[in-house]
C-alpha cells in the first residue's frame, strides 16, 4: 500500500491534493494544525469512497519543539511521500511587521518543513520509490512587495529542494516544488473583488487557478513513473509574472 502524508491537508489546495491522491490509490495521513474537525471530515468522506485505503487524520502544530517533532515522526506508519501544502503569509510592509510574525512565517513555511524532511528521510528512502513535494509560490521566483518575508520563505524552499534533491537522487527519492500563482482559495478571498479582478487581467490565462490546477501536478510528481524529475520548481501560474 502506498501512503503519503499531506501537511496542510485542510486548506483549499490541501483538500484538492487529498482528493486527487485518494483517487489515484493512495492512503493518506491528513494533517491539520487547528482544524481537527475538518481533517476528520475529509478522512471519513474519503474512507467511504475508497474503503480499500486508509485515511488517518493527524494533528501537528509547527511551533512545537524539536523533540516533539521527533516523537511525531516516530509514530508514523511507513510512507512513500510527503507533501508540504501548509503555509501562512502576512500582508504588510517589513518595517511594520512584528518580529514574532516574521519568525512564524519562516518557521511554518521553511524551517519546520526542512526539519521534517530531515526526520522523514529514513522512512522515505526505504522504499523502491519515494517523493517529497513542497508547495512554493510564484513569489518565490519573483518577490512581492507586502509579502517580502513570505517570498523569502518560498524562495528558500526552491533552493533547498534543488540542493537536497542532489543529495538523495541515488536513493530514488525525488524532491520538487510546485509553485502556484494566484489561486482561487480562501487565502486570496480576503482581497476586494476589484483587486482580484485586476490580478485576473494581469494573468495571460485570463483566470485564477483552481485548486485542481495545482493538485494535478502534485499527483503526477508522486506517480512511480515520475522518477527522473527532481530538484525542480514547477510554476503553475497561467503565465503570470514568470
Mean pLDDT: 94
Helix-strand string: EHEHEHEHEHEHHE
By CATH, the topology is Rossmann fold
- Return the CATH architecture: 3-Layer(aba) Sandwich
CATH homologous superfamily assignment: NAD(P)-binding Rossmann-like Domain
Give the tally of β-strands.
7
Domain unit count:
1
* Structural class computed from helices and strand pairing: alpha/beta
Supply Rg: 17 Å
**Straight-line distance between termini:** 38 Å
Low-pLDDT stretches: none
Protein name: 3-oxoacyl-[acyl-carrier protein] reductase
GO biological process, one term: monocarboxylic acid metabolic process
Organism: Lactobacillus acetotolerans
Family: Belongs to the short-chain dehydrogenases/reductases (SDR) family.
Structure write-up:
InterPro entries: NAD(P)-bd_dom_sf, Sc_DH/Rdtase_CS, SDR, SDR_fam. One of its GO terms (biological process) is monocarboxylic acid metabolic process. This is 3-oxoacyl-[acyl-carrier protein] reductase. Belongs to the short-chain dehydrogenases/reductases (SDR) family. This protein is an alpha/beta fold and 242 residues long. It has 7 helices and 7 strands. The chain has a single domain, classed as Rossmann fold, CATH 3.40.50. The chain has a 7-stranded parallel beta sheet, sandwiched between helices. Strand 5, helix 5 and strand 6 form a beta-alpha-beta unit. The longest helix has 26 residues.
